[in-house]
Amino acid sequence: MMEKPEELKLIDENGYRIDGRKKYELRKVNMKVGVLKNANGSAYVEWGKNKILAAVYGPREIHPKHLQRPDRAILRVRYNMAPFSVEERKKPGPDRRSVEISKVIRGALEPAVILELFPRTSIDVFIEVLQADAGTRVAGIVAASLALADAGIPMKDLVSACAAGKIEDEIVLDLNKEEDNYGTADVPVAIMPIKNDITLLQMDGYLTKEEFLEAVRLAIKGAKAVYQKQREALKERYLNVLQEEE
Hints:
- By secondary structure, the chain is an alpha+beta fold.
- The chain has one domain: Ribosomal Protein S5, domain 2 (2-Layer Sandwich).
- It is built from four helices and ten strands.
- It has helices spanning 96-109, 136-150, 177-182, 209-245, and strands spanning 29-33, 41-47, 50-61, 74-81, 121-131, 160-167, 170-173, 185-192, 197-201, 204-205.
- The strands form two sheets. A five-stranded mixed sheet has the order 1-2-3-5-4. Strands 6, 7, 8, 9 and 10 form a five-stranded antiparallel sheet that branches.
- A hairpin with a 4-residue loop joins strand 8 and strand 9 (197-201).
- The chain is globular, with a radius of gyration of 18 Å.
- The chain starts with 28 loop residues before the first strand and ends with a helix.
């Protein structure tokens, strides 16, 4: 979190945030499934100003073979930010943050994927951030979950995600870039909504116990709203497939 300029107000006296939203409003979210012909499954998510592409390949044979698991597939996730995704050009290739977020996203997705059905194989998930505006890890989880479903990978449920945080002493939903930079805390959460299982829970910043619980509840509510959009995007994809086959 950065020190906020004194003249910058993240919430005005009427309760409106810097981008015109109220405290508990999501940014605009659009999703499209099946956007890459050469992948087994793919999805594209626009979330606020975030633009994120996810592709899934597999199950497929692992190389080198010593990585194989005799009882299950392994899920491999690569999260990457394109050099042009941020205002100051990012150095190409993996860095410490992208490696960490790759592991976080893999941990969020693994509980949903039925890996035992595909021993000695890998399922590879690639997440490319084309434009970043805070919340790329939760948007990446949402895109990757859609791409896995599009690839026909058996799953216990879709994984959905959202973040809440604290700005100007208020708990709010779905922080944008300015709020993320100058806010007090950020709490990303991922869930499997059918059973209300939490697969990711992190916190960056400082909150009281009561504030933390409020932020988690709010993030879960946001994730459930995103989950409905995921379902709609998948329905649209397969309605289009059926129409093409007719």
